[in-house]
Predict the structure.
Amino acid sequence: MKSKAHLKGHPIHPILVGFPIAFFTGSFIFDTAGLLSGKTDLWQISYWLQISGVGFALLAAIPGAIDYFFTVPPKSTGKKRATQHALINIANVALFTGIWFYRQTKNPSPYIFIGLEVIGIILLAVAGWMGGTLVYRNQIGVDPRYAFAGKWKENFFKQVKGRIEIATTDELKTNQMKLLHVNHKRIVLARTESNYVAFDDHCTHRGGSLAGGSMICGTVQCPWHGSQFNTSNGDVKAGPAKENIRTYTITQSEGKVFLDLNVAD
């Protein structure tokens, strides 16, 4: 799924997350070096690294939150993983903020704040592992384009009922797809060799976004685990998915494509 918070197509969140990782890790290194060498002036460097780490972590959280709410497919294992990733990072920022305040108390023990930093580094590693899984397995922020897929297309429709116009007949080429947000539902419009079809943007296996998958010969393949579905009737053509996807009635008239929300195939 293409990131909603991007700079010329490049997701912003992964650009920023390296800074708090480096700053928090650096604070632990300088604190440990200061303790082992007796050069407590190194702790002052760690002090400022922790301030910088918290600041950049909060900055990185902004595009991360945008992608969490608007890119990660809802009701999916990716959403669950993204929630855990976010909560661990929030806890880590709170931890390093607490360490920073503790350092300003009278006679803070280096063994305490270094011990807490070890916990923070472990949390960083776990959150980083989850973030990597979101990218490499769930393809969050990745825009996988197959041959002749065209550019990513996405439209929003609010508070609509009945039959609605969703495209022109020449908007999509064969095997191209467009993601529609209709009344808080995610529906994929696709063009096959014979006609237009519409189906839920939700793989019945783990909830992957089918709009981010590939389409050929009337079959859509989920990018997460490779489940394949017949886009005309929603039938499973290849697992691991076992449950069919929902399809919708599409009509064409006077060069326009319409979706009928009152009729599901």
